[in-house]
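Slide 14.
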Amino acid sequence: MKNNLLKVLISFMVLCVALFISVACALEEPEASIPIAEPSHTITQKSPDELPDKSQDEVPDKPQPSEPLKHPDAGDIITFGGYDWIVLDVVDDKALIISENILESRAYNEAHGDHTWAESDIREFLNGGFLSNFSPKEKEMIVETPLVNNDNPWFIDYVTEHDYPGYRTPYGGDDTKDYIFLLSLDEVMKYFGGDEQALERPDSTALWIRDENNKKRIAQHVGGYTISELYTASHSVQPGASFWWLRSPGNCSSYATFVSGNGNVNVYGSRASDYYGGVRPALWLDLGISPVQIHKPKPTTESGNNPDGINVGDIIEFGGYDWYILDASDGKVLVLSVMALESRPYHKEYEFTTWAKSDMRRYLNGEFINRFSEADRARIAETEVINNDNPWYDLNNPFYENYPELKPIGGDDTVDHIFLLSIEEVVKYFGDSGKLSEGPQDSMSYGFNDQYDERRLAQHVGGVTGYIEQYWETVTINAGDLCSWWLRTPGGGSATHVGAYGDIYFEFMGDSDVYIPYIGVRPAMWLFLT
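Slide 15: predicted structure.
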């Protein structure tokens, strides 16, 4: 009985399993009207290195690789060889460039004497030591350039016509082929905006060219030290506007022309052995070999953010004279006459005096100021003038116990409309080499010269000095002559002055005696802008 019951249960369980399998199969089988498509391609497994980079999907606007850089235009600034350069000209695939800044200071020619560009030390340096700074690829881009080295157009005919005996004629010398060079007079006038006809010697005896393009020619020195084989001591050069050499000869073959710190083109030149002359290399670059990076917009000569359009270093006309702007503050500008307007004694009597008691002060704030119109006089500010003792000398020196009249005491401070600059102001506005604060190096040091001499140069408007009893005659000064000019700071029984070659004198007696009639006058004043 039990066995029959067991058989029935087993049969029932087998039937249930069979029924379950049948139903499951029926659910998985598709309908006949929906065919199963065969795959149209083969799927293969890729390695991780072959998988697409999905990180780009997160930056849908990423730019495509840029096209090769276009050639620069004249006026652009590019980077090449680690320096920044201004593009002066572009011809086909070649660009003429000049360093944006003055890169260093060194003599045009170490030994003083006759020279030409072809024989100069600076040419040897530029095409030797300086050229070696560039990589082989960069050197390949620098084009060997034939240079025309003309005579100085201002002086060559003048010297020839007058047949000066022994005068070293300003010949340009042989033409050369160079990789790196300095600009010539003709090139600086061509590329920095100016009338090339201005290089034809004018009727006047002007020694430099000053025009509306001065700002374009101003260059900043990167700073550092002067480099010279002949001078054992190097001199610090402060960053700021400074003069830079041209390759053309100056008034004679021992001088070289230059662009001054205020942008004047000095055709007279400076001694080629002056070791503080600035260097702005120029070269032609082959742009077809490799593109260059243009990293700055074209430089502009706009007046910047100054709403009055006036900046330090500008030259303005006021009262019939030209004036340099030395400083600006609170709606006023400090100005100094561009030229020495006349020559006269600091004081008519040979005696120790101070600025407060000098004839020069009375003249400037009397006869001279009255030359201006009433409207112009209203613009001249009354200024507190500080009259310090001469900082060059040790006033505690026992020497002054025996000669108290020579003690360079500044005297009382004053209030003036028009004044002369002090020695401190000359150093502040024309460049500080540190020599004033160093003081004299020996008992015979009555002044100093430095790398800022050329900034202090001044030409005379010309004229005749008044009769001076001590000289028994008048003195004639030619228009355009370089001249000395008075400062208000006392010397020692004398007054200080800037020499005709830009050096500064504090002599006790002699060339800066207060009654000397031929030292020039460059008035200074603070002007209201409106």
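Speaker note: The first strand starts at residue 77 and ends at 80.
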